[in-house]
Amino acid sequence: MTTRIVVADQGEARFYNLERFDAPLQPVGKLTDPKAHLHDRDLKSDRPGRVFDRAPTEGRRRGSVAHHSTGGERSPRKHEAKLFANRIAEELEASARSGHFDRLIVMAGPAFLGLLRTAFPPGLKSIIAAEVPKDLIHEPESAIRSHLSRELLQGGGHRLT
Q1: For the whole model, what pTM was predicted?
Q2: Predicted confidence (pLDDT) per residue in 80-89, tens digit
């Protein structure tokens, strides 16, 4: 039984296969998103839209209306992170359909792990053996291994959240 391990953040994803607990991790691929490290201002060329209140506020003259910007929660970086999570999900789904792995372990920081959960289709969700809510993308292989237990890899099916 082959286990695919994905270690990801919003700018990079590394994929490993693991055949047995005592075997070394086998790197099988990597995805990167060059836009992940850009600032919002670099991803979007103009300022947020402006909204003008229609009715005058109490105590103000009729012609003066307040105005403010909109779209604060629609960050271009968040949008790019969602798109990258979808790319990771597509890559994993294609590999699973091709029979490259039987089970999946997902390691990502809590916020990006939530985006991955949303992006994963039901077929991929059904083979998830564990989720590790830690950002380990810049850690060595030994740190990744330290979060894997023998029971987990032998079919324990734990969710490490």
Answers
A1: 0.74
A2: 999 999 999 9
